[in-house]
Amino acid sequence: MACPASCILPRVQTETEYSEAGSAVADFIAEARTVGRDKALERVDEEHRPFCEAIDLDAIPAGAESEVALAWDYRTEVGRVLGRKLSRQYPPTAPTELKGTADRIGVDGATVVVEDDKTGLKYRPARESWQLRALALYGARTVGASGARVAMAYRRDDGNAYYDRAEFDALDLADFASELRQLVGRIDRDARIFKAGGVPDLRPSEDTCRFCECVVYCPAHTALARSMLSDLCVVHDHLDALTAEQAADVWERVKMVRKLVLAVEEGVRQVARAIPGGIRLPSGKVLRETDTSREEVDAVIAGRVIVRLFGEKVANAAITTSTSKEGIERALREYLKTDQGQGRKLAPVKRDTLEAIRSAGGLQRTPSIGVREVKDR
Ligand code: SF4
Fold it and tell me: Which of 203, 213, 216, 260 should be mutated for ligand 1, with most atoms under 8 A from CB?
């Protein structure tokens, strides 16, 4: 909301970290209501336990729901629930409806309660957050509440949590509604400018650009990246003379240039796909869509055949097996859908399985040391 252009420019969809942590939190809250906090905590996956432990259950009204998609019509002022656990895949809405998803929403008397989970980084304060203001408004108009309590639940890298809370009364909500209506007007105007080849109203800031999905197409950043291309050659010749501050600046710019290069590369691939025969390159090669499928060997069937033909020793040399925590989790998810697995929860089953594998000596940690971005503790 702080940058109207982010509603107009093309965007590149990014994956959110929400899904796994979000469903662990949702399961924990639902179970805590029925079996009690301590028992529910025991069932939470180790990775998400410290965060769930820090959740203020008393602040969440009974009956609150998780990942609820809401819409609010800025003409009629009516709010409605679009669905639950949609993973931001919203159903079609009216052109006059704005939409958003509340990580948790409940009702406490005449007050709607909205919580949004955030990972370690610091966002705009809850009171000033347009995401929370909008969700408070959409939620209040949906349930007929006159006020709202909102919170950002921060989840840090070490799993712990803290809250940034705010309260909005009926006048605040009316102000938000009026500002959102004005924003829609500005967005319409900017969309016309953009369609005519102009530059929409860009309001870059660390807060708004950090997770903006338009960043690759945003003139505020692409201009910077373009100028950086020539700067990169200079930087390359003076890498050993960079101060820590300059290195940090170069790092951010390099990330931007890389995103831009990837977006341009994907654009060229699309052109190559669309041109019959592809694009002839200066190197003499042709860039075109090719079938890269190859024959896969089914390890189980191949193993049986080789044992029959040459015996166990040759089969063991020919067949390798591999797995991963993700592969085990996928298999367990499927198992829990079967008759034997029904009624059991993924988190404890996964924890017990990994513990059994660890006890049998089947888990080893491979050191992996490298320079990468991590959250500051
Ligand atoms: S990247 Fe920043 S300036 Fe550009 S559209 Fe997104 S929020 Fe606005």
Answer: 203
Position in ligand 1 atom list of the atom nearest CA 213: 6
Closest approach atom of ligand 1 to CA 214: 6
- CA 6 to CA 9: how far, in whole Å? 6
Ligand 1: residues whose CB is within 6 Å?
3, 5-6, 9, 202-204, 208-209, 212, 214-215, 218, 220-221
Chain-centroid distance, C-alpha 110: 32
Q: What would the mean pLDDT of 157-162 be, rounded to a whole number?
A: 67
- To 5 degrees, how large is the angle CA 339–CA 343–CA 345? 120
59-96 residue pLDDT tens: 888 889 988 999 999 999 999 999 988 877 889 999 89
What domains are there in the chain, each with its CATH number? 4-192 (3.90.320), 218-272 (no CATH), 299-359 (no CATH)
Burial class (CB in 10 A: 0-12, 13-18, 19+), 38: exposed
pTM beyond 0.70, yes or no: no
